[in-house]
Structure formats: C-alpha cells, structure tokens
Request: fold
Amino acid sequence: MDFIGCDGGSTDAGPYYLGSGKPRGPREGVKRNLRLMLREALKADIPVIIGTAGHAGGRPHLKWTVEIVRELARENNWHFKLAAINSEIEKETLAQALGRKEIAPLSPAPPFERDNILNAERFVAMMGIEPIQRALEAGAQVVIGGRCSDVAIYAALPVARGIPRGIAFHAGKILECGAASAVQRPYPDCMAAEMDQEGFTVAPPNPDLHCTPQSVSAHTLYETGDPYHLVESGGTLDTSDAQFEASDNRAVRVTGSRFVPAAKYTVRIEGAALVGYRSIVIAGIRDPLVLRQLDRFLSTLRQVVERKIAENLDLTTAQYTLNFRLYGRNGTLGDVEPEMTMDGHEVGLVIDVVAPSQALAADIMPIVSHTGLHNPIPEHQGLISNFAYPFSPGGIDAGPVYQFCANHVWELDDPCKPFCMSLEDV
Amino acid sequence: MRELWEFTKLIRSKNAGPFELTFDIMFKDQESFHHVLHSGVLTKERISELYQVGVEEVRFFQMDKLFTLKITIPRKVFSGDVRDTDVYGGQFHGPLVQVPVPDFSTAHQEPPK
Reply:
C-alpha cells in the first residue's frame, strides 16, 4: 500500500456548507474515520491525503479538519508532518482575475460580474494534483486539502511516481466514491486500486464485496455529464477506449484510458451567495373538499397573505419568496412534474418562506399559516381548520439560504499559485 | 404496451455538479437496449418535452458495450436554489420509469444505426 486517500466533501448536499462555512459533521464520526486512516498510515509509514476537508473545502472547513487531526495526534501521541492546503479564494483576488479576463464560464453559468463576486459569501478553487504533489514533496505525511478535484486526491501521488495520467485519473474516478463501484454496497466502505504502467486493478478490501467489469464501468459514468470525457485541471480523462476485464472473481483490470492535455491549465471555481433566511411549516390536508379545489384555495390564500404581509411588514412580493410545496402532487419535481392530477386522499403541504432576515421570515410564516388554517371554502359554512400541523410550534426556522453563484474556470500560469500551503510538525 | 423499467436493470438520476442533471438508463440486455432505442420512445425531443429544456440542450450518449443510455440536461433550477425541489437530483428520473414502450413483437428488432 502506497497511500490512503479520502474524499471529504462534495457539492451534492447543496450550497449551504460552502456558504455558511459550517462543516458537515458529525465531528465524532469524522474523527473516528480520521483516527482509523491515520493509525494505519502511521503504522505502514505511508501518506494520508484528504481532499475537500470539512465537506466544502473553505478556510473554516480546513481549519476544523486540521484541528481534529491535531487533537488525534495529541491524544494518541502520534507525530508526523502535516500539510494544510488552503483553497478559499479572496473575493478581491477573484474580482481582479475576472478583470484580467482569466475567468471563463462553463454551461450553464450564473451571472458573474465584479458585484456578484463581492456580494457572495465565499469562493473556493478546486485544486488539481499539483498542490498535493507539492505537499508530498515537502515531506508531508498527512495532507489535508481544501477543495480538491475528487480524482486528484487519488492521482497526485501515483502521477508523481510515474504512473501515466490516463491510468491514475481513471483509477481516481473509480476510487472517489469508495465501495460504490462494487456490485452491491450494503453499507459505505473502501476501495483499493493497484496501478502500473499499463492500467490499474481495482478490488474492494472488504472480502464480502466484489467488483465486476460491469460494476466498475458503470461507475465510470456515475455523476458525470459525459460518460467518456471527464474534464479535470490540466486536461481531460478520455475513457472511450477503456477496457474492463475481470482479473478474478472480485477484481477488475482497467486499461486503455487516456489523458488528453489541455492547452490552458484551469481550475474550477465554486461559490455560494446568501439569498435570505428560511422558515417552514409542514401541514397535512385531508379534507376532500379542500383537496378538490386546492389550486383555487392556495391562490386565494396567496392573495390574502400578500396583502397582509404588505400591510403588516411593509414588504413587497419582490422582497420575499412564498412557495407552497405540495407533496402528493409536484413536491418532488416542481414545475416539470408531468402528472399534475392528484389521486391520493391527502396532501403534504410545506409552506416555505425565504425573506431578507430570519426575523422577517419568522414574522411572515404565521401570517401565511394561520390565514391558511382558517381560509374558507364555500362548501363549509362556519370556521374551519384546514391544516393538520404535526408539531408545536408549527414553524421551523431553517436558517440562512445560499445559492451556488459560480460555474466558472480560472486560468492559471502556476497550478499551485492560489493554493497556499502551511506545514507543521505535530 | 409495457413500461420502460421492464426493460432495464437501473434507471437513476443524479446531479452532475450543481448545474446539470444526468440520467443513467441501464438495460437488461442487448435486445432490450436495441428494442427501446429503436422504438423511438426515448429521444432528445421526448426528454426536452418531459423536462422542459431545449432539444439542443439535451445530450445523449449511447453506450453500446454497457447497454446503457446516458442523458444529461441542464438544471432549470440549480441545486439548492430557493425554488429547488431535489438538491441531489436523485428523483428526477421518476417520469422515465413508466414511459410506455411497445412490446417486443410490435417493433423492429434490428439494432439502430
């Protein structure tokens, strides 16, 4: 075994973590996993490479992860050289790069002018293999990276040791989801690959799991827009001629992947901007008479509450969002739901309010929920209560809401330039 | 008529980054793969209509060795935006599962060009 890699994050869970600077815990779970990796790596005297620390790879996420590693070293009397690679980019740095025309949009991309940058909450650049290689060259045994390309975590060391990029990057793509490339993954687990000059062989370390050519080739296309071309910093992994063969009944040999270098070296930029604060209420609707006129019911409710919100809180509809999410109809797919008829006997309504402050969202919510509770329908004469609230209090303050505000690449002369590294002996 | 899932072993959707959605449709065997492709029920036009994106925005990848059709579209609402309904994009494949597909006997059997 030459090293242990760990992909610590993703944009999958949305923009909240990058925007808020909060790591995605639980801290004890992360500490437990880091303990196992560090213990085994120190025993075997090999590096540990952790990418996208703390889930989003910003400065607070990196700090959080480094602190856990230091704590583990203290508690276990472990000693090693630790490298922390920052990937958070100052807004002014990015705005200047934009001014120098070093930033280009991918598709689809949100607007990205100087003001968009300065008004956003946080940006990270996604490092390729080079900053990780620099940390290893500097003698680090434990490398903790901010935002990293998933693939780079696993390709950095092999490429430094002479493995062709096409092979190392493809192995990295397979390894980044751990045991996801096994035939069945009853619980999250690890994956191992052995790389050489001609290809790599992948097999799960857990003897209960196994890989087949089908499971590994299927994973090559997981979460990628294009199954044959994976764009990475410095070039594209081309797997269109890749061959997948069973080495034995649980290992798969992969050959034929190529790396096509890019004319320019670019890194992806990710950013999150604050858009408001959310409060929600969950309510069940079971009355068939309400359900059969639900659209009308909700549109009259909306009219009434918009007027009340304007009168009571002096807010126009442009200043907040009121979204009725109807589970049982199109709660899952929203506007693209093709089946707008409701066959069920109940609907789950989530009243979703996003306003400029948490206090305002929390003020708007009871106006909507209480007006809706007693909103009349012609078939019932007298005061009715239309919403079944499962909880008291009904309203839940869900905190700040962010949005991804960049889908861009940044052209760099030096792949390491924006990624400052700090080294320490722990 | 049958439904698409009867010809597949996996239909899934997932974010390909926060700005795109990708669908993986893996067929049971070569015969099912060619039958569905040839029946014309899964086309760029059909996907464009179902997911309300432009035909030119729909990317199709026919993966013959894997009996797999991969389709990638831009997200109309980016992952996690205020009006997003599915942050991971994991349930957008729902309407595809029951796309009507003609029986084997009622369609051509030869592989598409």
Summary: DSSP finds three helices and six strands in chain B. The beta strands of chain B are 2-3, 8-15, 20-27, 59-63, 68-74, 100-101. The radius of gyration of chain B is 14 Å.
